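Fig. S4 source data, part A: sequence.
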Amino acid sequence: MTPLKTMSTDRTFIDHLADQLHGFGAFSHRKMFGEYALYLDAKVVALVCDNQLFVKPTDAGRALLGPQAAMGLPFPSAKPYFLASDLIDEREALARLLLVTCEALPVPKPRTPRPAKVSRSAKPGTR
């Protein structure tokens, strides 16, 4: 497994990754806790942490990467993910991996809305 580092992802790294995936589908990213989640069709397919790409492990991804695929931990206490940073500059191989990963993942459950906060027009005890 890859040892954990303590730096956060550079904006230039995530921009380069977005450029590499442009034109291959509805890819997007969202900053989360100083790092990034990579989405395809509303599914989280990968995490970008410490300027490294961690792809969710699936059987389809293992078939593409092979049985000796590098694994790594995107953050402490995480389950192992495929470490796919070496594919960053291989547009088609990267897109293929993320597309098959997306197809293998279940559709996300709909989020339940948070209850509305009750606003008070005046503080208690005041008139």
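Fig. S4 source data, part B ends here. The first strand starts at residue 27 and ends at 32.
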